Amino acid sequence: MTLQHLAIVKDGKIELLEPVSIPEGTKLIIIPMSLESDTQERESWGNWALENLNQCYGEDEPEYTLESIKEHNPDYERR
Question: Which domain of life is it from (predicted)?
Answer without folding.
Answer: Bacteria
